[in-house]
Amino acid sequence: MDTESTYSGYSYYSGRSRGSHRHGERSRDHHKSRSKDGSRSEKSVTINAPPAEPLLGDSSVLGEEVQDDNWGETTTAVTGTSEHSLSQEDIVRITKDLEDSVGLDCRRYFTLTLAVVLGLLVFLTPLAFLALPHLLWPDKLLVCGTACEGLFISVAFKLLILLLAVWALFFRAPRAGLPRVFVFRALLAVLVLLFVVSYWLFYGVRILDSQDENYQGIVQYAVSLVDALLFIHYLAIVLLELRQLQPAFSVCVTRSTDGETRHYNLGQLSIQRAALAIIENYYRDFSVHNPALLTASKSRAAKHLAGLKVYNVDGEFPATPATGPGNNAATGVAHSQSRAMIAAAARRRDTSHNELYYEEAEHERRVRKRKARLVVAVEEAFTHIKRMQEEEQKKAPGDVMDPREAAQAIFPSMARSLQKYLRTTRQQHCHSMESIQQHLAFCITNNMTPKAFLESYLTPGPTLQYGRERWLARQWTLVSEASVTSGLKEGAIFLLKCIDFSLVVTAKRIPYIQLSEEFIDPKSHKFVLRLQSETSV
Amino acid sequence: MKGPLSYLQPGRNTKVSDQSETMSFIPGQPVTAVVQRIEIRKLRQGEHLILGFSIGGGIDQDPGQNPFSEDKSDKGIYVTRVTPEGPAEVAGLMMGDKVMQVNGWDMTMVTHDQARKRLTKKNEDVVRLLVTRKSLEQAVKHSMM
User: Fold this and answer.
1) Cβ of B112 under 8 Å from any chain A Cβ?
2) Using one digit for the tens of pLDDT, what is the confidence trace for A121-136?
3) CA dihedral A375, A380, A383, A385 (to 10 degrees)
4) C-alpha span between A457 and A422 (Å, rounded)
5) Domain extents for chain A?
6) How much is the pTM?
7) Domain PDZ: where (chain B) (predicted)?
8) Backbone phi, psi, residue A144, to 5°
9) What is the ipTM of this complex?
10) Chain A residues 514-533 with a CB less than 8 Å from chain B
C-alpha cells in the first residue's frame, strides 16, 4: 500500500462540509468482538472503546476533497470538488467491522439477564423466608411479639443498605467490553448462587417439610441470610475495587510508530483489566497519532534500499528449486546476496545524514517563522473585539454580537497564517475550519488570551482533545502470549494493536522497599573551622 | 653544605622511586619517594631550642589550602617558611619540602600537633629529617640518563 493513498483517505476528514455530516456520522466500533480471524495470533482478542455505535454507514461515502489554498479567505458559501473514493485503509476497516459486529450483542444481554435474575433471587429470598410460613401454615405458628418485630425492622434496613450498596457497586455504566469474562465477578456470582441455594435447601428440608412452628427462629434465619449477603458484598468490594489500588507493577507503554513512551503504576490486575487502564490513560496522556509525521523516515528507508542492486556476474543460478541440497544452494545464494548488500551499504559513502541535518534545520527555521507570524496575527485579531459590559449592553444595542458571530468576524484575519502554520507542522488534517471557529468562540467567551487560544495548535495535544473522527485509535486488539485473565507478572509483555499503530506494554514489578530509620539529635549539629595553622619550630 | 645530589646514592639512605608520582599516595599501599636526608642541629636561644623553619599541614588540617602540595588531598607536613641563616637553611632545607620522617618517626600521617612535638623534643639536639621535593625526582632522572 503506498503512502499517498493512506493520507488521502485521512484528508476527507478535514472537509468543510463537516457540519452536515456531524450528526449523521457514526463510527465503526461495535460492542465486543471475538475475532476468530486466522491471521491473528492464538490469544488475540478485541477490546472495544465505548460507546457502542452501529456499523460504518454513511461515513464511508464522505467525499475526498481537494485542499483549497484559500479556504481561509472565504467565509460562507464554501464548495469543493467531492468524489466518492475510499482508500485502502477504509476497505480494511469496513471488512473488519462487518465481520466483528455480529453476535456479541447476545453475550452482553446474556450477562445482563443473568445478573438481574441473580439480584432478584437474592433480594426476594429473605422476604420469601419470612412470608412463606404465614402463607402455608398460619394457624400452627407461634405468635412472636416484640422480638420478631425488632427483627423485622433490622431485616428491612439491612435489605435497604444492601440494595443501595449493590446499586453503588454494580449498577454503573460499563466502561468497556472486555474479551474474556471478568474472573472475580464470575466467582462472586457463583459464590452468591451457591450460598442462596444452600440456604434454600436447608429451609426447604428443615422448615417447609417439617412445618416448624417457631417463627422467631425462622425470622432469625432470614436475618442471618441478610447478614451473610452483606458480608459477601464486603468481599466483592475488596476483590473488585480495593485490591488493585495498591501499586505493584510499573508498566512501560511505547507507541510503535513514533516511540512515545509513558510509565504507569498499576496494582495487581489481570492483563485485560491492565490493558483497559492503559488505554484509558492513553487517551489522556499520549499526543494524537499523526501519520503525516512519519513520511520522512519512510522515504529515507526507501532510498536506502533503492541504492544497491545485486548482479550475479558468474552466472551460477540454481537450476530448480528442488528439495534437499538444491534448496540449500538457493538459500545460500540469497544469504550471500543479502550479506553482500549489507557490506556494500556499510562501505559506501552515504550522505543522507547530511541531507537530514540540513532539512531538519531548515524545517525548524520555517516553523519558527510561521509561528511568529501566527502569533502576531492572532494577537492583532484579538484586539478587534472587546467584551461589552452589562450597562453598555442596555445603552447601545447596535452591532452587538454573540461569541460565535464575534469569532466568525475575526477569524478571516488570522486564518491564512494559521493554515500555513498547520501545514508546516503537518497538523492540517487534525483541525477543520469549523472546529477552529468553535474553539475561537469558546476562548472569547471565557476571556482567554491569544496565547491560550493558540496553545492547542502549537503543540499536539492528547487524543481526547480532538474530535472522535480524528483519533485513528478506536478499535483495540489485545495480543498476548499469556492468558488475558491471568495476572500481571514481572516481565509480562503484551501488545495493544490498533489499525495504524500498536502500543507495546512491558510490566516490571515495583521493588520491595526496605526503609530504615536514623535518629539525629538536633543538638548534635556542631561545626568547627577548617584550620591551616603554621607552627614555627 | 652538602648538595642534594650527593645524597642520592641508591641503596644506602635513599629510596629511589621509579614511579612518576612522588607526592601522591594510594591508601593502604606503601609510599615511595625520592628523599633527601637533612640533619639539623638545633640552636639554643634562651631556653628554647629552635630549628628555624615553620611547618604546616597534618591530618587534622585542610589540605586544600596548602600552596606547596601537588595533590590537594595530601595531608602531609610541609615546610612553609625557612628563616634565613637559621639552622634549617644551613642544613639545606628548602621551602615547600614535604617532611617524610623525623628521627625515624613517620610524618606522613600525623596531626599538626604531633608533628610539632616530634620536632621539638627537648632532649634531642639533632633532628634527622627525610624530606622530599619535586626537583629531587627530576634530578634522579637526569642523573640516570
Assistant:
1) yes
2) 999 999 999 998 888 8
3) -100
4) 8
5) 96-244, 247-290+471-509
6) 0.62
7) 37-134
8) -125, 130
9) 0.72
10) 530-533
